[in-house]
Design a protein that fits this description.
The structure is a single chain. This protein has 210 residues and is an all-alpha fold. It has 2 domains: 95 residues, no CATH class; 90 residues, no CATH class. It is 77% helix and 0% strand. It is built from 12 helices and no strands. Keywords: Signal. InterPro entries: TPR-like_helical_dom_sf (IPR011990).
Length: 210
C-alpha cells in the first residue's frame, strides 16, 4: 500500500505546465528529481529530509507562481516518501493558491481535497470545471487529464466512453492501454481513496484536538 500511495503522489502531481528554468534552478530540481525517481522509495530518510529542506530553501526565494508550484509539488512527493501523505498533499496548497482559479491544477487539487474531506458535492463541482477546462485545451496531456478527472469523480461510464472516442479518432496506444487496464487501475484507485479519506479524518481530528 505504501508503494502504491507514493506512486499515486508521483503521478498525481506530475501534471504541470512546460516552462523554462534558469540553469541553477534546473540543477536544484534535477537533484531532487533523482531522489524522487528512486521508486520503491529511498529508505535513507536523511537524504529525503535534506531534499525537503532544500525545497524549503527554494520556496523562500521570490519564485513565480509556476516555479513555487513546482517546488511544493516535489516537496509533497518527498513527504509522501516518508509516509506523511496528508501533510504532503496539503503542502501543495500554498502553491496552488497562487495559480489562476481556472487552472486545471487548481481545480483538480480542490476536487481531490474535498473528496477526501467527504464533501462530494463540492468535489464534483471542481471536477466538472476541470473536465470542462480540459475539453477547451489542445494536447494529449489534457485529454488524459480529462479521463483522470472523470475517474476521480467516479463517472466511470463517461471515462470509458471518452477513451473509446479518443481511440477512434487517434488510434493511440496510450489510450488503448488505459482502456484495456481500466478496471485494474480502478481497483488500485479505490483503496487509495478510502485510505486517504481515513487519513484526512485522523489528521483533522488531531488538529482539532490540539
Amino acid at each position: 500500500m505504501r508503494y502504491s500511495l507514493t506512486l499515486f503522489f508521483f503521478l498525481f502531481f506530475m501534471f504541470s505546465h512546460s516552462q523554462e528554468y534558469t540553469k541553477s534552478f534546473s540543477v536544484e530540481l534535477d537533484s531532487i528529481d533523482n531522489i524522487l525517481a528512486s521508486l520503491p522509495p529511498c529508505k535513507d530518510t536523511t537524504i529525503i529530509e535534506s531534499a525537503i529542506h532544500r525545497c524549503d530553501e527554494l520556496d523562500s526565494l521570490n519564485l513565480s507562481p509556476d516555479d513555487e508550484y513546482t517546488v511544493l509539488q516535489k516537496k509533497s512527493q518527498l513527504l509522501a516518501m516518508l509516509g506523511k501523505y496528508v501533510e504532503g498533499f496539503l503542502t501543495q496548497e500554498k502553491g496552488i493558491l497562487r495559480l489562476d482559479t481556472t487552472d486545471i491544477r487548481y481545480l483538480e487539487y480542490f476536487a481531490v481535497k474535498n473528496k477526501y474531506l467527504g464533501n462530494k458535492k463540492l468535489s464534483d463541482s471542481y471536477y466538472d470545471k476541470a473536465i470542462d477546462m480540459c475539453g477547451k485545451m489542445t494536447g494529449k496531456k489534457y485529454k488524459l487529464k480529462k479521463v483522470e478527472c472523470l475517474v476521480g469523480k467516479r463517472d466511470l461510464t463517461e471515462a470509458k466512453n471518452t477513451l473509446r472516442r479518443l481511440i477512434k479518432i487517434y488510434n493511440d496506444s496510450d489510450y488503448k492501454m488505459l482502456l484495456k487496464e481500466f478496471d485494474s487501475i480502478l481497483e488500485q484507485a479505490i483503496p487509495i481513496d478510502s485510505f486517504m479519506e481515513n487519513e484526512f479524518k485522523k489528521y483533522f481530528h488531531m488538529k482539532l484536538g490540539e
